[in-house]
Amino acid sequence: MSITQSYYMDLGTLTLEKDQVIRKCIAILGIRGSGKSNTAKVFAEELIKEKVPLVIVDPDGEYRGLEAIIFDKFNVDPEEVVNLLMVGKSVVLDVNDWNEEVFKFLTTFFNILWETSKIYRRDIFVLLEEAHEFIPQGTRTPLSDVLVRIALRGRKRGIGMILVSQRSAKVNKDVLTQSEIYFLHKVVHPVDVRVYKEILPLKSREIEAEIKAMETGDAIFYKDGELRKVRIRKFDEFPSVIQSGEKAEI
Fold first, then answer.
1. 61 and 94 Cβ atoms separated by less than 8 Å
2. For the domain that residue 232 is a member of, what is the CATH number?
3. Which residues form the Helicase HerA central domain (predicted)?
4. What pLDDT does residue 238 have?
5. Which of the four pLDDT bands, split at 50, 70 and 90, describes residue 243?
6. How many angstroms separate the CA atoms of 30 and 27, rounded?
7. Is there a contact between 226 and 206 (Cβ–Cβ < 8 Å)?
8. Alpha helices, DSSP H, located in the chain
9. 239 pLDDT above the threshold of 70
10. CA atoms within 13 A on the CB side of 221
11. What percentage of the chain's residues is helix, strand, coil (to nearest 5)?
12. Structural domains of the chain, count
């Protein structure tokens, strides 16, 4: 199926219109080194260009090249961070130090975001890097509960979610199978390959052949019955102009 609409988001060999992706749940999967985080950063960059604010939960400090406000300390009122999103600012929550304080902050933050979205209904995105750590299959926590609620019900309130994971089989299946757009990079573990087989309308041997032939940056794009192999452009870690992106302490 060919897309004939006007495009705004340049992802490489794939271009998408903003209205095709907002409020959607998007899964970006693949092993380390497959290009999945690059895809997520390119996608985030294009959303920011289109004035769609994001909150990015970043466990490994990979998203500092974006035009966003970075928070790496968690001693501020989470409502202040939610307010930044409501006025159109993108935010990176650098959670390199995983501890009880960080998870408590994230739980409070996302609960406030959920309640605020009921009033403002602004188009925003939540991007979860290493999503299997925050919404794991078979385990419930106060944080996972609110994130699953946002993923499954956020569309009506303007919230989309981007799930990024190297272990697709460990991501909450209710959320993963309800995703509307997929970027499937190379995987090798049989359990993760099986997840791809559950998602894609192809024969098992066709999927195995496609995965085996993948190089870094290659992905299977699947949306609304459209399925094709794409190559995502390289994210520019050092853009010539960064209007914001200052480091903030909270």
1. yes
2. 3.40.50.300
3. 14-97
4. 54
5. very low
6. 10
7. no
8. 36-49, 78-86, 100-120, 131-134, 142-153, 173-177, 190-199, 204-212
9. no
10. 19
11. 40, 20, 40
12. 1
Instruction: With cut-offs at 50, 70 and 90, classify the pLDDT of residue 242.
Output: very low
Tell me what the mean pLDDT of segment 30-36 comes to: 95
Sign of the Cα pseudo-torsion (189, 195, 196, 197, in order): positive
Write down the mean pLDDT value for the chain.
Answer: 90
Do the Cβ atoms of 105 and 78 come closer than 8 Å?
Answer: yes
DSSP at 233: P
User: Residue 44 corresponds to which tokens in the numbers above?
Assistant: 């985030």
Whether 189 is in a domain gets the answer yes
Cα(153)–Cα(90) distance, rounded to whole angstroms?
Answer: 21
Cβ(182)–Cβ(221) below 8 Å: yes
Type of residue numbered 153 = R
- Note down the domain range covering 29: 9-248
pLDDT at residue 70 is higher than 50: yes
CA angle 243, 244, 250 (to 5 degrees): 170
Token look-up 């052949």 returns: 209
The identity of residue 85, as a single letter, is L
Cα radius of gyration (the chain): 17
Other Cβ atoms within 10 Å of 221 Cβ, number: 19
